[in-house]
Design goal:
2 domains, 4-stranded mixed sheet, alpha+beta
């Protein structure tokens, strides 16, 4: 007698369970982009974690969603291939004008004096002296035409030039066995990245855009350009870099965004 193949009810119900959980969670999270990220990342395992929560309790819901986000960060870190390159594009595909994007308006872009500017270096590095802009421009420069992907759902292709960040880390004697590299910026932004991404060949300490000195709206005097990360992981107006084994979060990450932020 033929054996009848049965389908578990959980296989049938999975999309419905996730849809219902997302519809319940969405109103609890104010910020639109954060809401979209966290509800998209929700899995059946996350629903199981939430099942013991009171969905009217903001702190419980946010705590579980933060745990899910941290788990996703670890998975992305495990899957990240430091040898895999993001696509590069011909100059004809550059987005013109390249969009300005920040947590403030154009009128609030910081003014940085290039003559007095010094890049501060701290943490697990051998050479902690500060760097002038002309010293950075004197290092070997490389270029890339890569796609910037924003967590809000848009993307743009730009041409960035500067110092390969791995070369800079070698120059300052950074401990590449450390876990994190952190950044503090002139616009009060801050973030941190994993060492594997810091050493990726396309991670760039960008000093120019489209062949010109980096404009203010794109991060003068320098930004970190990482085509393997979402846009909010690419800090602008960098004033300080530190190497550490201590997790330091980031401006958006401390508000619930994914810390790894892979694109």
């Amino acid at each position: 007698m033929p054996v009848e193949k049965t389908t578990r009810s959980t296989d049938l119900d999975k999309p419905a369970i996730l849809a219902e959980a997302r519809s319940l969670l969405a109103p609890r999270i104010e910020d639109a982009s954060r809401r979209a990220f966290l509800t998209r990342s929700l899995t059946l395992g996350g629903v199981a974690m939430l099942s013991g929560c009171n969905l009217s309790n903001d702190d419980q819901v946010e705590g579980v969603l933060a745990s899910i986000s941290r788990f996703n960060d670890r998975v992305q870190g495990w899957l990240f291939d430091p040898r895999s390159l993001a696509p590069q594009y011909p100059a004809a595909m550059i987005t013109r004008p390249f969009p300005f994007n920040a947590f403030y308006g154009l009128d609030d872009i910081p003014q940085v004096d290039q003559d007095t500017y010094r890049l501060e270096i701290t943490g697990k590095v051998a050479d902690k002296r500060s760097w002038r802009l002309e010293e950075l421009h004197a290092m070997t420069q490389v270029e890339q035409i890569t796609r910037h992907i924003c967590v809000e759902g848009w993307s743009a292709i730009g041409r960035w030039g500067g110092v390969r960040f791995s070369d800079f880390l070698v120059r300052i004697g950074a401990d590449t066995d450390a876990r994190y590299v952190g950044f503090k910026c002139a616009d009060d932004y801050y973030t941190s990245i994993d060492m594997a991404t810091a050493l990726h060949p396309q991670t760039l300490l960008a000093l120019t855009y489209d062949g010109q000195v980096l404009p203010r709206q794109y991060g003068f005097p320098m930004k970190l350009r990482m085509p393997t990360k979402l846009g909010y992981k690419n800090p602008k107006h960098i004033q300080a870099i530190f190497v550490t084994d201590t997790y330091t979060g980031g401006y958006w990450e401390d508000q619930g965004y994914s810390w790894f932020g892979g694109s």
